[in-house]
Design a protein that fits this description.
14 helices, alpha/beta, eight-stranded mixed β-sheet
């Protein structure tokens, strides 16, 4: 198990949050035994944003202010990610994360009508819906990692993540590499099929240069089990929009097609020219998609 000293070696708001996107909308909240970093903006129908593994609320940096012109928006850093405190590593599972976020929104009294999740964030939202933590009318999955990996990746991904998560050396090693070589972070981002701005790369480099942020992502992957979600997805109540980014090398668009086979009533949308972080590349296009889908009964 990753040591507590590594899990808690994380970004510090007073030092590292000075140039955080949408900083003026940030505040900290105690809920479910954790200190959360959240961002709230706008008015209108409540809309919840959940980022993916290894990211933080900065992932919505360009999209959040656009959405806030139409919605009451809540974004957050997932447990152990960004500026939110780390729970015990065993709690960084899909049910654990879903329960933690549900405790947060209950504390806030926030009842989302629309929920938007990216990658693993879409799976967290689906789990929250199935467990009764939220009851939105619409769930939008942006390149959602909703189904177990297939083939070689499916056989080896979880065991490798478990091996890395047991080590306190691995996150320190990668954090040191991010500090020493900025190009390594750009190569990682490029590997997703997305082309981020230098400012976007710098924010990921900031996060990855802290072993605690990396350790949270590794433990999340190590504890991830999508088989129960696979079985229960057909029971999902909200309308579901499955968005695939055409150039995504992390969660290819075919995964959205696989999910639609389980949920024939889901709406499938393909956005051309975008990689896995498409909402960071073209926030205006994603806003337009959200507005179209929320207007679609």
């Amino acid at each position: 198990m990753t040591s507590a000293s590594v899990m808690n070696d994380k970004p510090v708001w007073e030092r590292d949050g000075q140039s955080w996107p949408n900083r003026e909308h940030s505040r900290f909240v105690e809920a479910g035994g954790l200190r959360w970093h959240i961002q709230e903006a706008g008015s209108g129908p409540p809309l919840l944003l959940i980022h993916g593994t290894g990211a933080a609320s900065h992932s919505w940096g360009g999209l959040l202010p656009l959405l806030a012109e139409h919605f009451q928006v809540l974004a957050l850093d997932l447990p152990g990610h960004g500026f939110t405190a780390a729970p015990a590593p065993s709690q960084l599972s899909l049910p654990g994360m879903a329960a933690a976020v549900s405790a947060l929104i209950e504390t806030l009294g926030f009842e989302p009508e629309i929920a938007v999740g990216h990658s693993a964030g879409a799976a967290i939202l689906a789990r929250m819906c199935l467990d009764g933590g939220i009851q939105p009318r619409l769930l939008i999955s942006l390149s959602g990692a909703l189904l177990p990996l297939r083939g070689f990746a499916g056989r080896w991904f979880s065991p490798a993540a478990k091996l890395f998560a047991r080590s306190s050396v691995v996150p320190r090693f990668f954090a040191r590499g991010a500090r020493k070589d900025p190009r390594s972070v750009k190569r990682m981002a490029d590997g997703t099929g997305s082309r981020l701005t230098p400012e976007g790369i710098a924010l990921y480099r900031l996060l990855i240069s802290y072993p605690g942020h990396l350790a949270a992502a590794l433990n999340m992957m190590a504890n991830w089990d999508l088989e129960p979600l696979l079985r229960e997805l057909p029971q999902l109540k909200p309308a579901l929009v499955l968005v695939g980014f055409a150039e995504d090398r992390t969660v290819p668009p075919k995964e959205a097609e696989r999910a639609k086979c389980l949920l024939p009533r889901a709406r499938l949308r393909l956005m051309p020219g975008l990689g896995h972080l498409g909402h960071e590349e073209r926030p205006q296009q994603v806003l337009e998609l959200v507005l179209r889908e929320t207007a679609n009964p």
